[in-house]
Specification:
The complex is a heterodimer of chains A (about 160) and B (about 290). With about 160 residues, chain A is of the alpha+beta class. Chain A has helices at about 25-30, 90-95, 105-120, 125-130, 140-150, and strands spanning about 5-10, 15-20, 50-55, 55-60, 75. Chain A folds into 2 domains: about 5-80, Roll (Ubiquitin-like (UB roll)), CATH 3.10.20.30; about 90-150, [2Fe-2S]-binding domain (DNA polymerase, domain 1). In chain A, strands 2-1-5-3-4 form a 5-stranded mixed sheet, sandwiched between helices. Chain B is α+β, with helices and mostly antiparallel strands and about 290 residues long. Classes of the chains: A alpha+beta (about 160), B alpha+beta (about 290). The structure holds flavin-adenine dinucleotide and FE2/S2 (inorganic) cluster (2 copies).
Chain lengths: ~160, ~290
């Protein structure tokens, strides 16, 4: 089957990709662009490990064909820090010891970013709702919620 | 994933022509949250996917001049759930869209895909039936419009002709004094599939029910209406007893099956209790 060329904008950089259209956004970002933060857990939309932001909204990139992302703004965990300055949520995850094996964390942090964007000052219940599509086998979620909550409750402008 | 061709037309006319020229094995691609899972799991082997993402005609949620609601087939579950007018005046539809999967799912999942996947458990299908929605369809022969329940012929099967695309759902303005509601039963609160879904819409005039629609999900090969239960409500003031009676009648109209998610008896029990509760909730919303 014919490979296709589409422009893919990832973390602010434009890439001209030539690939077969039956590959997922997750596969192309990991294998062709070598951005391996997003993980494949289930491949069927259930675990959230492959979460990416497309036009600011979180999606499971394992269920999106890569050409579908053409013309949109894709953001992965690699695009979150500002140079060497970590995003406040990334720092909060470290400070709260919210990371164990780390497999779920890129998706978890992006879900946290989307939650805070949607609901500034989110409560614990709203945070849990925001990360309901992200499974973690290690932490028991408590410290993850603590970390996101610490940023949600931080006075505006502190970070 | 196994191989398939991919096309991304930029107009409805081009999409219809493309689907038609690619023939039998071609499928429209919405958000892909059902389709790609089916391809990955080997249940579906499409020769080609025709993306609907580039077709502006399919986008958007909005009210028409006459107060009716138009939901483009490519509107996502999150857009529908967040839309102020949908929440306020077509509440059952917002209820249904809001419980689909996770934010990640809802940001990709489209209403056209939810309905055209034809799962009897699809969470926006009972609300659309309860709200008397019509589906607008485009095909090579032109456009047509049917009641949404005429779209399904069985689990996973639609009455769409090859090459046809659902372009939008149109929901008539509920008369003054109307309220609607959808609820599903799932073992887990989120990320689960409805064991039973119930949607109701009531119109209350002068203290009694003037019109009623009750739609049941996951208790028959397609979403069905509980017509006798609807009739039992007409002309009566809604009370706990009247709602309970409608629930008992609805349970007798369901034809559920036993499966991993629930037994026949459990599903009938759920239909009875959930219909009764939903009637009360719609009545509350109608008066609120
Ligand atoms: C993790 C997860 C959780 C889920 N949870 C729920 C849930 O709680 N409730 C629920 O109801 N569903 C759920 N789903 C199923 C799915 O997300 C929904 O049914 C969704 O709305 C499908 O829409 P889509 O745009 O992704 O459809 P697609 O997968 O793109 O398409 C589905 C089918 O419809 C056809 N189609 C799509 N658009 C059109 C159109 N405009 N005209 C004609 N045919 C069309 C396609 O050819 C295909 O056969 C879940 C899925 C996942 C992966
Ligand atoms: S890998 Fe995409 S949701 Fe699990
Ligand atoms: S830290 Fe291991 S899965 Fe979450």
């Amino acid at each position: 089957m014919a490979r296709q060329t589409h422009l893919l904008r990832v973390n602010g950089r434009e890439h001209e990709i030539l690939a077969e259209p039956n590959r997922t956004l997750l596969e192309v970002v990991r294998d062709d662009l070598r951005l391996t933060g997003a993980k494949e857990g289930c491949g069927t939309g259930d675990c959230g490990a492959c979460t990416m932001l497309v036009d600011g909204r979180i999606v499971t990139s394992c269920l999106m064909l890569w050409p579908e992302a053409g013309g949109h703004e894709v953001r992965t965990i690699e695009g979150l820090a500002d140079g060497s300055a970590l995003h406040p949520l990334q720092r909060a995850f470290i400070e709260h010891g919210a990371v164990q094996c780390g497999f779920c964390i890129p998706g978890m942090i992006l879900a946290g970013v989307a939650t805070l964007e949607r609901t500034p000052g989110a409560t614990r219940a709203e945070i849990r709702d925001g990360i309901a599509g992200n499974l973690c086998r290690c932490t028991g979620y408590q410290k993850i919620v603590d970390a996101i909550e610490s940023v949600a409750q931080a006075p505006a402008g502190r970070d | 994933m196994r191989h398939f061709d991919y096309a991304r037309p930029t107009s409805l006319a081009e999409a219809v022509r493309t689907l038609r020229s690619l023939g039998e094995g071609a499928r429209p691609l919405g958000g892909g949250t059902d389709l790609l899972v089916q391809v990955k799991e080997g249940h579906l082997r499409p020769a080609a996917l025709v993306s609907l993402a580039g077709i502006a005609e399919l986008d958007g949620v909005g009210l028409a001049g006459d107060g009716s609601l138009r939901v483009g087939a490519r509107a996502t579950m999150q857009e529908v759930a967040d839309h102020a007018a949908v929440r306020e005046r077509f509440s059952a539809l917002a209820d249904g869209a809001a419980v689909v999967g996770s934010y990640q799912t809802r940001n990709a999942a489209t209403i056209g895909g939810n309905v055209c996947n034809a799962a009897p458990s699809a969470d926006t299908s009972p609300p659309l039936v309860a709200l008397s929605a019509r589906a607008q369809i485009a095909g090579v022969g032109g456009e047509r419009e049917i009641a949404v329940e005429e779209l399904w012929s069985g689990p996973g099967r639609t009455t769409l002709e090859p090459g046809e695309i659902v372009t939008a759902f149109v929901v008539p303005t509920p008369p003054p004094g109307s309220g609607s509601h959808y609820e599903r039963h799932t073992p887990r609160k989120v990320m689960d599939i409805a064991v039973v879904g119930v949607s109701t819409q009531l119109t209350i005039d002068g203290g009694v029910v003037a019109a009623a629609r009750i739609a049941l999900g996951a208790v028959a090969p397609t979403v069905i209406r509980a017509v006798r239960a609807e009739r039992s409500l007409i002309g009566r003031a809604v009370s706990g007893e009247v709602a309970a009676e409608a629930g008992r009648i609805a349970a007798s109209e369901a034809t559920p099956i036993d499966d991993v998610r629930g037994t026949v008896a459990f599903r009938r029990y759920l239909v009875e209790k959930m219909t009764s509760a939903s009637v009360l909730r719609s009545a509350e919303r109608a008066l609120g």
